[in-house]
Amino acid sequence: MSRLLLGAGMVAAAWALAITGLIFVGDAEAGAAWAKTGPGSAAAKAIRIGTPGKPTVSSTVCTGNGPYSISLQWSPTLDSPPTYEIFAAANKNATPVLIGTTTEPSANLTNVTTKPSLVSVRATAGTWRSSLSLEANGC
Amino acid sequence: MKKPTVRRVVVVTAVVTATMGGGIAIAAWTSSGTGTAGAKAGTAAAPTTSTADVTALTPLLYPGATGPARIVVNNPNPYPVKVVSVTGTGTATGTGGIGTCTTTGITWNTQTPTANPIPANGSATLTLPTAVTMATTVDDGCQGATFSIPVQVTVASS
User: What is the C-alpha to C-alpha distance for residues A117 and B93, in angstroms, rounded to an integer?
Assistant: First the structure.
């Protein structure tokens, strides 16, 4: 009976030692974590807004006093801008009027109220705007 | 009466020996872990950065937009680390634009990357998708410019 008690005691002692060891491990891992800060530099790049190429008009609907329709495309700028704006002028002396916007280097516009006799496009990115492209004949 | 007693002694001895063996093994491993942790903390060195190539970085910045930045982080330590934060510390400068680029309008948005391991004595290039915002007050001459943005990089042992 006394031997059994002695054995039980030794088992308990062994487990106590094991648990102490595990607590030690936790302390060691907490002590191993460290952080270090240093100066440096990061880099970023801005878009270059180029002027789009002269549009090519592929189809038009120019009957009466409108509304008019026009499909056109143009060569994109080197850095693809988020938006292109399409302008139309009824004649050579008229101020171009904005008739549509697109994210692609092409547009298919319907219900245009300004007769698109001459059309041009420009690239925009936020407040940055390119020059207007060369004008193409529409209606 | 003798035989059962001997058997009990044998069984108890085996159990005690096996359990103690496990305890000793764990205790030895614990000691080793503690020593290693102390050595790491003593030799930690600050990270550095190198010039990042932004030639193919997209999307590009423009007034009012938030976009990406790139950074190359070097780990001078003989242990792997991970980047835990990148914070802005100063005014960005712009070069290579179409004209004068004094007011860059760039602000750094603090970054806390989640998984960016850097090997021991190695480097890693981080592309941070929403790291910078360009204000609408930016100079027109900054179109096409590359910006250098002062930052502080914090790394932690991984």
Answer: 45
